[in-house]
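A favour, since you know our structure tokens better than I do. It will help me judge whether the discrete encoding reads sensibly. The space below this message is yours for that.
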Amino acid sequence: MSTITIEKSFCTTREAAKLLGVSVGTVQLWVESGLLRAWKTAGGHRRVMRDSIAQLLRQEPELPVKSVSAEPLFNPPRQLDVMVVEDDADLLRLYQAKLTRWPMPTKVTEMSSAIAALLAIGRRSPDLLITDLSMPEMDGFSMLRILQQAPELAHTTIVAVTGLDEAAIAAHGGLPPGILVLAKPIPFDRLQEIAAVIVNQSRYLLNTPA
């Protein structure tokens, strides 16, 4: 008689972390923010619904994630890791064209949705995160509030580039502290100044491979 195996509709946070390729802490953060659906056992242990994990994985861009590296004009310790989150494909191409011409070697990773960005950031934290605020499904406000609690981004500089004015940003509940807001059209010169400051920071140099 054959044995029938029934797959559970839920898993532990550790199993979810393994499936998603992120830390247990990141899974817990995503549960608390509502990005993953979960419930608690009588003993207080979280159980994550597998269908919400599958749904999140379907949001992930096809791998490999599109990244473009600038041609180095000199030999600094390492590449600057920049992630751009923007749902407008034309603006993503413009970011790619401009940022990869910076004088410091720069790797640019493009994300067309906030959910895809959250999944990618859970696996690798960039030096500089540039994001739009008005996006479908999950907007930049929600994404940044989730990231505010992520220990992985402790050393990431975050810049919001938006067409919204101060009143509109306030109407959305504002942004977490420490996030620089720049107005569209995209101020590429200002972004390059920010990148240069990051490259000169001691924590960036400390993360340089020998």
User: Anything to note?
Assistant: The chain has a mean pLDDT of 82. The CA atoms of residues 60 and 119 lie 7 Å apart. The longest strand covers residues 80-85.
